[in-house]
Amino acid sequence: MTQSTAPTSRTGKPRRRHRRIAAVLLVGYSMLWIFGGCADMFLLHPTTGTIATDGATRMEIPVAGTTPVEVYARRVNVSPGKEPQAFILVFDGNGGRAENAVFWGDDLARQHAVEVWSMNYPGFGGSPGKARLSGIAASALATYDAIKQKAGDRPVVVWGASMGSTAALHIAAHRPVVGLVLTNPPPLRQLILGRYGWWNLWILALPVSSGIPSDLDNVANAATVKCPAVIVTAQDDFTVPAGYQQKVIDAYAGPKQLVPLPNAGHNTPAGQSNPTAWYAAIDWLWTQVGVGN
């Protein structure tokens, strides 16, 4: 009688290999979670190349406990020897630059004499330091304090586009801002988990969302802000879909004028997509902050 032999497992080696791969992935994921930087890498896209800024003045604003930030300023509709009626502080999105955003004030100023400032986040443009989400709030407050010191009793309107809305709303939640313009404001944590989590089974979305500072919570900050605001919302925004923007809009506690942009994407200018609503809302805002026609 022939003695039977137990069959040799052909799946042993592949299983061990899969376990090793899973272990490596788990360690890598844990390191990513523990040591952070994931949110900065995915949400900030800094550039440092030279951009022409004809007519704009460069300055550096000190930030307590860290490196200064680069700010550009220029005047719009201000006659020689005269002073501006109001000031505008602009924050661009996560890949934008102050050298470009400082020129947005031309559209917002309308006929008013204004001085426009725009800040490069740490690690962007000529702002020293590393590009980190944790650096946005403090540098934004320092820049607002500097422009407000110059403005005195004159109004300062803060304009934040996309990621820049987190800086604008953080300022408005901690300073007596008189007016805001928000363009396609994202609720960052909800957006990352709800919009960008499914395709990676939340393996990336969880550490990215957990790395977003509470200072940049647009929904929480919006619920505390009472100043008048113009909120621009692109209806075909693939980056920050309108439904997510609506979470910030619904939370906003102050008077607001909505400017919907039908068939518009994330970077479509409001004055191009819906000029009637845009300019009517801006005129309303200037009246609200005490700058007459």
Automatic annotation (TrEMBL):
<dbReference type="GO" id="GO:0016787">
    <property type="term" value="F:hydrolase activity"/>
</dbReference>
<feature type="transmembrane region" description="Helical">
    <location>
        <begin position="21"/>
        <end position="44"/>
    </location>
</feature>
<dbReference type="InterPro" id="IPR029058">
    <property type="entry name" value="AB_hydrolase_fold"/>
</dbReference>
<keyword id="KW-0472">Membrane</keyword>
<keyword id="KW-0812">Transmembrane</keyword>
<keyword id="KW-0378">Hydrolase</keyword>
<feature type="domain" description="AB hydrolase-1">
    <location>
        <begin position="88"/>
        <end position="185"/>
    </location>
</feature>
<keyword id="KW-1133">Transmembrane helix</keyword>
<protein>
    <submittedName>
        <fullName>Alpha/beta fold hydrolase</fullName>
    </submittedName>
</protein>
<dbReference type="Pfam" id="PF00561">
    <property type="entry name" value="Abhydrolase_1"/>
</dbReference>
<dbReference type="InterPro" id="IPR000073">
    <property type="entry name" value="AB_hydrolase_1"/>
</dbReference>
